[in-house]
Amino acid sequence: MRVIDLSLPIADGMPVYPGDPEVKVKVAHTYECHTWELRQLSMGSHTGTHVDAPSHMHPGAATLDELPLEQFFGASRVVRIEDPNWPEGRGLFFAESVGLESFDRLAALRPRFVGGELSEELERALLGIGIVTYTGLQGLDRLPGGTDFMFYGFPLRIVCGDGSPVRAVAVMEGEPAGLGINA
Length: 183
Prior knowledge:
The mean pLDDT is about 95. By secondary structure, the protein is mainly β. It has a single domain (about 1-15, about 45-170), classed as Glucose Oxidase, domain 1, CATH 3.50.30.50. It is globular and about 60 Å long. Helices cover about 10% and strands about 30% of the residues. It has three helices and eleven strands, in the order E-E-H-E-E-E-E-H-E-H-E-E-E-E. Strands 1-11-9-5-6-7-8-4-10 form a nine-stranded mixed β-sheet, covered by helices on one side. Strands 2-3 form a two-stranded antiparallel sheet.
């Protein structure tokens, strides 16, 4: 088994979408003063690698705490826009920019989730039909096309959450390359 981390690290001052809250990671407690270490985090719900709930772009739509956990993991595949056949019953990820021109194909397949560099219009349309989206992923190009993997991208259980940072991972079957962890 090979585990591939698809997440951006969260760091003080990291880049954010224009207008989103800036990221602040500050030391709140130290070993010297408190006998433990603790960080205070301040950031928007769409910071770094994150999942978007339908409520992100549609008032009254499902929030993170209303969605079943099964919505955030499952068999997946990286596909290209020009691939003639996208598989059914899988989460779909794009290692290239993808826009609204792909919506009809995605809507017909009804994947649990779609991820990659999605245009705002495509993201809005997918969320409108209840398909959660993952953005801010890194390393999708390291996953072989045409090969299934298990994807896990669990959000924090935020009441009325419109989105959440996630630790996104792909798990590939087979022998690891080196240690395989965080490849």
